[in-house]
User: Which sequence fits this backbone?
């Protein structure tokens, strides 16, 4: 018994350390991904497509990852290969050249950029900036002839670079607002660029010539898409990000399932529920640490690599360290695997309960609304002159607020009804979006992020508690996985796809306010529908038995995982 207790403690300690490193690694790179894509010169619609594909790939791949290999060596090999593969895929992003040679310089930290441009204008480079200015100048000189003239990105204000510090500041402000507030001139120039020869096809009176010209224009348009430097960079980024997410999802699911199976074997699954705290702590430390480090660097590490590439270097380093921890993981391979399609069964259970349907739609909408913040909040902060430290702190404040509120979870759930908690959560998320639409300074984001404790953390308490009440034995984790997929794979992916185009055509403030209105309308609708539903609460008897006696398992006597059956089987095998 003592050795078994020691094994459980050792497994939990290793898992906590692994999650700490994983959370820190993820937070080094994932929150800053869209900011990095902006520095590569990708516009908001293409960034939204990349972010949406990332969420969708994770949601579709996760159910396949749950079918772990049976052998211990195969599982260890899968974990190691996923770790190294995800690190390598993240480093691929740093090798992709920018689509716009001036994008990284234009979006660099405002104070540093003004200092660098002022030094360049005075032709007196300061210490540590001379190599940077010459690298940027050489990069522009070598890159511009390679780009076809119709597709060269507009570089406003370059002629004014040597006119003084004041003109540089005006140019920076104009370029910053350009990405979040659309202009008619951009749309007009894009229209003229994409249809260079459309008028000539109508001059001929011959119908066959007319069709040939139309086909030629269509083929030329498709050809231009793949020849356009911006679209080439987009396709490379899309492939690298999707590959990275597939490998990272495979890693997380394999490690998570393996730990749960081990704890289930030794009847200690009750200690599994608090391991997420280590991930949040690691993410808080990782986001702040990498932000402080990046703030100390020059805008460019080389002629084509911006300092934001350090985020992915940090991710690769922490992932490699977690590989050393994974070597000592205890691995338990179940003797019998269940081949039932639990995803379809989980969907049927959700569909059978009215409140579960309401909460499933709620997490879908919150995932879509949250994608606007995840994808473009750092863009907005950068345009307000924010340093990366404030960005890292905004990540940490939201996560730490959820951890602190978690210690009051039992008291809050006993004091307030589920409907009230959901109503407060949706209201505070709407308030967050409204505040972001009127963002005045970068540091104000930290105050707004405190509300994430309720808008994200408390909402999921109620959702998970509701689905646990309708879950049959062994289906709790499958139900939670389906809801996570609805939130991130469904809501966040669709929100990302649409959000980029809304930012381009209407601006980021309109996107925030639109989601704010949608959440308020859904809040009123959910309150009306909830009052019409019957107030019968389904009792999960397996959870009730587990609460009454710690010696009882989460399954009934007919289930193969009952502790007595396990003990008899183990005795017979011994």
Assistant:
């Amino acid at each position: 018994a003592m050795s078994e207790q020691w094994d459980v403690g050792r497994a939990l300690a290793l898992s906590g350390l692994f999650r700490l490193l994983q959370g820190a690694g993820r937070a080094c790179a994932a929150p800053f991904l869209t900011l990095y894509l902006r520095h590569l010169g990708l516009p908001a619609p293409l960034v939204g497509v990349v972010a949406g594909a990332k969420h969708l790939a994770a949601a579709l791949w996760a159910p396949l990852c749950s079918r772990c290999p049976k052998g211990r060596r195969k599982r260890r090999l899968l974990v190691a290969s996923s770790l190294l593969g995800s690190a390598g895929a993240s480093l691929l992003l740093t090798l992709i050249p920018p689509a716009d040679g001036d994008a990284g310089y234009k979006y660099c930290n405002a104070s540093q950029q003004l200092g660098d441009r002022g030094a360049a204008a005075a032709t007196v480079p300061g210490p540590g900036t001379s190599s940077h200015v010459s690298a940027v100048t050489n990069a522009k000189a070598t890159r511009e002839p390679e780009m076809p003239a119709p597709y060269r990105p507009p570089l406003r204000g370059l002629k004014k670079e040597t006119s003084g510090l004041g003109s540089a500041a005006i140019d920076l402000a104009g370029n910053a607002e350009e990405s979040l507030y659309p202009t008619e001139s951009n749309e007009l120039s894009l229209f003229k660029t994409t249809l260079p020869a459309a008028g000539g096809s109508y001059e001929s009176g011959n119908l066959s010539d007319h069709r040939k010209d139309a086909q030629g224009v269509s083929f030329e348009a498709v050809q231009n898409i793949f020849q356009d430097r911006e679209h080439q960079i987009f396709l490379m980024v899309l492939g690298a990000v999707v590959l990275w997410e597939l490998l990272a999802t495979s890693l997380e699911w394999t490690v998570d399932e393996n730990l749960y199976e081990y704890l289930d074997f030794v009847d200690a699954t009750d200690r599994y529920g608090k391991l997420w705290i280590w991930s949040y702590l690691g993410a808080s430390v990782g986001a702040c640490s990498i932000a402080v480090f990046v703030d100390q660097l020059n805008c460019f590490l080389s002629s084509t690599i911006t300092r934001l590439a350090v985020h992915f270097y940090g991710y690769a380093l922490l992932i490699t360290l977690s590989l050393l921890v994974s070597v000592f993981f205890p691995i338990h391979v179940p003797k019998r695997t269940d081949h039932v399609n639990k995803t379809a069964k989980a969907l049927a259970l959700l569909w059978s309960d009215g409140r579960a349907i309401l909460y499933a739609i709620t997490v879908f909408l919150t995932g879509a609304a949250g994608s606007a913040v995840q994808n473009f909040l750092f863009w907005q902060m950068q345009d307000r002159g924010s340093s990366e430290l404030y960005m890292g702190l905004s990540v940490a404040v939201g996560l730490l607020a959820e951890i602190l509120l978690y210690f009051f979870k039992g008291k809050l759930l006993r004091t307030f009804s589920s409907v009230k908690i959901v109503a407060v959560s949706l209201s505070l998320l709407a308030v967050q979006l409204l505040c972001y639409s009127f963002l005045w300074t970068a540091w104000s984001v930290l105050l707004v992020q405190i509300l994430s404790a309720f808008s994200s953390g408390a909402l999921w308490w109620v959702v998970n508690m509701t689905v646990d009440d309708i879950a049959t034995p062994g289906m709790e984790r499958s139900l939670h996985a389906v809801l996570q997929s609805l939130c991130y794979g469904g809501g966040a992916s669709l929100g990302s796809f649409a959000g980029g185009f809304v930012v381009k055509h209407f601006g980021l403030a309109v996107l925030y306010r639109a989601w704010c209105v949608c959440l308020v309308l859904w809040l009123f609708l959910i309150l009306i529908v909830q009052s019409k539903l019957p107030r019968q609460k389904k009792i999960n008897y397996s959870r009730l038995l587990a609460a009454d006696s710690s010696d009882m398992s989460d399954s009934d006597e007919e289930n193969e995982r009952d502790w007595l059956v396990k003990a008899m089987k183990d005795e017979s095998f011994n």
Q: What stands out?
A: Residues 1-6, 114-179, 183-205, 549-561 have pLDDT under 50 and may be disordered.
